[in-house]
Amino acid sequence: MWSKLAAPMFAMLAACGPRYAQLGPLPAEQIWSPLPVQHIEVDGVDVAWVDSGGNGKPLVMVHGLSSYLSFWEYQIPYFAQQGYRVIALDLPGYGQSGRPDAPMTPPWYADLVADFMDGIGVPDAVVMGHSMGGQISLTLALEHPEKVDALVLSAPAGIERFSKGSAQFLEGYWSESRALETTEEELRYTFTRVVFNRVDPGVERLLEERVRMQHTPEFRGTSVAVARSIRGMLQYPVVDRLGEINVPTLVIYGSDDRMIPNPILNGGRTSTIARQAQQAIPGSQIVMVPKAGHTVHHDDPEAFNTAVEAFLTRVAGRARG
Q: What is the DSSP letter of 9?
């Protein structure tokens, strides 16, 4: 039924934009990056990452579901210019990293990020995570507290609760082949009407990359990663452990987030989830960015970056080292 109702809308959106599938497959190593990509083996897995260098306080960026490090394109250069050593990685299963046969749960990713930091000689850092990366960052702070000096969470998953029935529905829907079945029209709708509230050339580039990568052999591994990541977020919630977070924490949501809370399974307002985060995480600060969506750090990078810089300045004794 939904596909019948949505078909005319997808067709209309397709007419409004280019057909990227016609350009042919795009290998992962050709994805655009704001900095030169390096590779390191972590726990037997190839991890792609970028590093702005310098002697500033390390700032480690952890991307969200179905994305990769270049989704931070407005943060990597900004915080490097502010004197931070900015480090961003592609989580395994995504971007230019390897596609291992692994659980891909928040605890697994958190352990890998901790070992990645050890591997590049970074004992501790400010950790910034978006959406799923936010839940991974929270898990990192819970399981490896010595690694995290402060948390910056952009529209984090892990705060919203799901009933058992809702979780089972999501796990059943996101099969390991689901991402392979998504059409270009559906992807354009998701990018321009759900994930981003401000569509610019960067979003078009990310959309083109996603469409063209779908036609590469390695994307099957990404489709598996998406399904396992979703199951992992549901099976390893952190919401009941938020009171254990003991580092300065900034949580930023967009007021017009169309993904949190889940509009179909839960409904409600993003501001409600933000208040729950503030109540649950001791001493946390909450910022709501007007008109921004789920990728709040892209939709209003000026507001996001300014809020983060002000937060880190206030906790400078611990965050700047």
A: H
